[in-house]
Amino acid sequence: MSDPSLLILASLAEGDKHGYAIMTDIRTFASVALGPGTLYGAITRLEERGFIRPVGGAARRQPYRLTTLGRRSLEEQLAGLESIVRAGRRRLKRA
Amino acid sequence: MKRFCRVAARLYPAEWRRRYGRELEALLEDMEPGWRELVDLFCGALTMQIRTLAVIPLVCTLAGAVAGGVMANRTPTLFASSATVRVTGGDIGNPASAAGQKLRASLQKALGESGGTERAVSVRLLGVDSTQTTLGLTSKDRDPARAQRVAENMTAAIASAQTPPVASAEVLDAPGFPTSPMKPEYPMPVAVGGVVGLVAGGVALLLLRARPSRASAG
Fold it and tell me: pTM for the complete prediction?
């Protein structure tokens, strides 16, 4: 599971974070090391789609916040993943 | 490595850097980037360039240059026959002189008689001094025999245009039968193709950027 957009949404579900904080958080909870280009590529896309938004002033270490749309998207994606996990576990048990 | 990463960060489109550039720099300050992060930044910059369309003129330039090269490669095979003639006396180096005009008329007559065209024949001044003028003559044609025939007729025309004892012509290098075709001329078609591609790409980019975005339209 290494979709950068999903990982960023999951990270921001906990609270506002700037780029470096998101990167270290993802490394901790998902054991995925996102590169700076990948991270900011995903941040750009997520902001364009209205899933996250910058908060506070135009700081160099700009924090981002999950929007309502972003929270809904995260919930949908997690529900989809849960369904896959359940199906996979069930089939493993049967095999 | 941070220095290289900062350089890579500058490869992002200017528009993107205005929005995220300072944040990315701050991120690079906070972390200890390695080769993996450098490659990641390069890939990110390339992706962003493609997304913001700035790569369009570059791609069009390359496509135009390649098309020019392909067209140059597909042009009909030409054979060239060349001669060198030295004229002593007279004033043929000056096109406005009587000798120069006589030579020009004689060359045009020979060209017409031998079935050549002005575009396929070139006459160059190789050397001029007070008493002698050296001319280089080249005839190009798809048919090697015709290329040689036109060159021979032109060479003879140069000789016949001189009036002894005022002037005389000496053939230093007679036109030979071309056995192998000329190599395709790549530089000009490639350059022209590249410039046309660049202009087309620039226009396409301007049109795409001028197009209202879905967000602003809606």
Answer: 0.52
